[in-house]
Amino acid sequence: MATAKKAARKPNAAFMKPLTPSPTLAAVIGSEAVPRTEVTKKIWDYIKKHNLQDPANKRNINADDKLRPLFGKDQVSMFELTKIVSGHLS
Question: Where is each DM2 domain found (predicted)?
Fold first, then answer.
């Protein structure tokens, strides 16, 4: 009885294309061009390192001095994060 192996998922090429961050975003993640997936990972690393998740509602991220120019406000939800970051990549 042969077991069918599930084909390994290939990453979408659009997600793996290196993108250049804007100067505002570069202040948080660095200025080198990285794929969109890495941008998101680096932002979350920064948020966790600086303890910026709202303790009362973990879905919200409180902005510090580096994130405030990026977000344009003092707090954003994690669901807004992707949309905000997309505007800072080219």
Answer: 14-90
The closest of 77, 52, 79 to 65, measured between CA atoms, is 52
Per-domain residue ranges for the chain? 36-90
Fold for domain 36-90? MDM2 (1.10.245)
Report how far residue 5's alpha carbon sits from residue 54's, in angstroms, rounded to the nearest whole number: 43
Q: Provide the whole-model pTM.
A: 0.78
Tens of each residue's pLDDT in the chain, 90 residues: 555 565 666 667 766 889 899 999 999 999 999 998 899 899 999 999 999 999 999 999 999 999 999 989 999 998 898 898 888 888
CA distance 37 to 72: 22
Residue 5, φ and ψ in degrees, nearest 5: -85, 135
